[in-house]
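Input.
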Amino acid sequence: MEQPVVDQPRLWRLILQIDTDAIRAVAYSTVEDSSMLQFSVALDQSGDQSLKSLEEAVYATPFLLSDFGKVDVVVRTPAFFISPAAIDAIDATAGIMQMSPDHQRRLKTDYIDSLDVSLSWALAEDFANFLARTFRNPAVWHHLTPLLRYFSRKTLLGNSGKVYVHLHRGSASEMDIIAFDASGRFVLAETRQFETVDDAAYFALSSAKIAGIDFRNDEMLVCGHNSLREQFMGIARNYFNYVMPNIFPSAVFRVGKEALSAPFPLIILPLCE
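Output.
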């Protein structure tokens, strides 16, 4: 990959997404429009070398080591636990450790202020230490955090229930499903792997049914990977009346057309601040 070069990186913001197969990155100038860069760096998938592969990928990409003014890191992991913000931290710890029993993990909690809930999740201790010593004061988030913050604010518009489906393709295809009832009350959030788009549609419809969503009158809004999105909507429309692409946030166009193909959680993260 040809290395990007920018002047005055302190005037730039870097946002990374760490997946099992790659680091996906966007960077943009905070003082200049239409400046967004986006690229990915593959991670070595051979053997049980997750930290080593991350280190090698970062050190092989000097651009990532520039002295950026702000750095955010989004980590895709299925191990999370959502609870009312007031819940005792011990209860949250017990819940997340049941899903991620490795004791060499650090419990992190992202607060979703628009919902007054906490998203507790586990980050490997060696990963956390590497991020802290490699980047300047990085903010580290679970991948659902920007989605929950963004969609919870969007769902206040209108009076119908809404199911948001975010489709992600990495070494495995994954989907994030977030549901709100007609009153805007948060009902459900989950991340699932799927083999086929038919499977993805089944999972989304099943989650919508569990959440009490009305298939005739409520909405299913889809974003993420372009080709997966089109296939998914074609199938879901056979069972759900209103299946539409999620409207791309117009505010993001200011940073450049690269935003259209960037990972959705990364481009909406600045809008949630």
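The chain has a mean pLDDT of 90.
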